[in-house]
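G., the chain you wanted modeled:
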Amino acid sequence: MSKLTDLPKRILIGRALRSDRLGETLLPKRIALPVFASDPLSSVAYAPGEVLLVLSIAGAAAYQYSPWIALAVVVLMFTVVASYRQNVHAYPSGGGDYEVANTNLGPKAGLTVASALLVDYVLTVAVSISSGVENLGSAVPFVVENKVLCAVAIIVLLTLMNLRGVRESGKLFAIPTYVFVASVFAMILWGAYQGLVLDTTMKAPTADFDIKAEEAGLAGFALVFLLLRAFSSGCAALTGVEAISNGVPAFRKPKSKNAASTLALMGLLAVTMFCGIIGLALATDVKMAEDPAHELLKNGVPVGDGYVQNPVISQVAAAVFGDGTFFFVLLAAATALVLFLAANTAYNGFPLLGSILAQDRYLPRQLHTRGDRLAFSNGIVVLSGAAALLVWVYGADSTKLIQLYIVGVFVSFTLSQTGMVRHWNRHLRTEKNPAKRRHMIRSRAINAFGAFFTGLVLVVVLATKFTHGAWVALLGMVIFYAVMSAIRRHYDRVAEEISAPDEPSDDSVRPSRVHAIVLVSKVHRPTLRALAYAKLMRVDKLEALSINVDPSETKALRAEWERRGINVPLKILDSPYREITRPVVDYVKGLRRESPRDVVSVVIPEYVVGHWYEHLLHNQSALRLKGRLLFTPGVMVTSVPYQLVSSEKARKRARKRQNWVAPGSVRRGLVDERPRDREPAGE
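Predicted structure as tokens:
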């Protein structure tokens, strides 16, 4: 079985890495940017479109408000980036928002932030992949016709890439990310040159369309509400900003400085591209609608169900570069690819946060350990499964999924920045150095403004998106919170229960006697070996136990027992319902009731086979019995193995394979350096 699984595993994820090579996986800034910032950088491919989609409810005339919405998003982005630069310097251990909230606001706030982040990371994968499939579908019809299948396949591919390790996956992601950024900047510059210098009229494919407004002539509170909803949709551009503060340990030294520099560069690139695309969308007269089949009109007639609405970035590229040109295709491919890879932000944030939560006993311990490639493999697999489930439930529709988005982001933003204010207040009470105090006061002011602004945005997001799907994200956060709280209570209860007391207890008192029972079905070699082993235990009482299911077989067993003169008493238990497990368990419990201070040792002979399918044919009764006896206090279960010929053949095959250095053998050590069993003479 090991041979069947090891080779494909090595082919897919590569050689296993030694623990002492963890330092080699640390990231320089040029790789860290695409690894941790691919989500906010790629969000410019759909965030401008979400703004225009919401504004289209009031008709194309409402597009005039999009520059002001873009300005508000820019101010928010710079505020969040400046705030998180304080975070990475103050908390470089990788806990990010969770550590800040947990340390300064208490465990409940920390768990709330963790729940929000876990939900947001899952949504990041689902939204990015779905949006990427839609962008690719504009050029490849098969993709848009099989959106769910293609999205799940890409999630599987990303999972395998991330299982190969952070540094290796980062190298794969770097080129597409930089090509995307360069292509968008080229589009913005070339579009600005054509419009401002050459005075060229650029028209998007939808420029001649009209929008049938759902709510024409909005004014007053209704208009304000619509603008706030559009702003909350545009805030999707900020998703993933927190990932850098969670991933500080993955940076090369000086970790905090490199993380802060990467944050600043990411913010500058993201807002420039976001504003540039919004500006070009207005200049090229892009039209978007939430229900394009009925709300987009061509010559006064709805375009119909056969119309496929391309993203804003694709329409702008068609207007600037020309539909079908080399640069249009390059940008379309780079956009689709970087949207797929944007999920990598979550693939780095979710497993690391899961490891920290597992260390704090809020998640299963399995999420704390690193896999073969020094990545948190179990966390990667859990994230992939949850994202694939969301994609399937929502049909890989990014417009539906994005309504669930950004709620968790701003919950973590707000609590994290509030925690940072408490952090600076605590340090200011003890700091006497004037220069350091000035720095702390300045940092506190930045975090205080960040807490106020992000808290205000959180209220806006909840008010405008709650009925459009945000309630699902809140429900997910509540479920995560409840599950993690339950896991922590379980671990705490178990730790308290198994903690060794200072004074002597029943666990350290020697049992009065040991009553050993050897289970017997027939007199054969495994039985004789188990009896011989039980005699060496020097127990107070030893007996053999058999279950009478077939009277003729039981009679033959008793006759063979007496013929051989085995000097161990044989006890036969009747089983009128032909059960094997229940009579043994009842008998053992009866012994415990008679002598509570005695220990019962149950010895079970078992076959050792060499093929996986042979396990289905043997030892099933032993497995069931051991499972039942585990819940019986004062009972010890001992397995006495007996190796069949097939197991010996398997051992010889394993020895032959030792001469072949399999990929990943580094984890086991070099073959020549490992001690080998001596071959018996004549073998």
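The chain is about 60% helix and 5% strand.

Shout if anything looks off.
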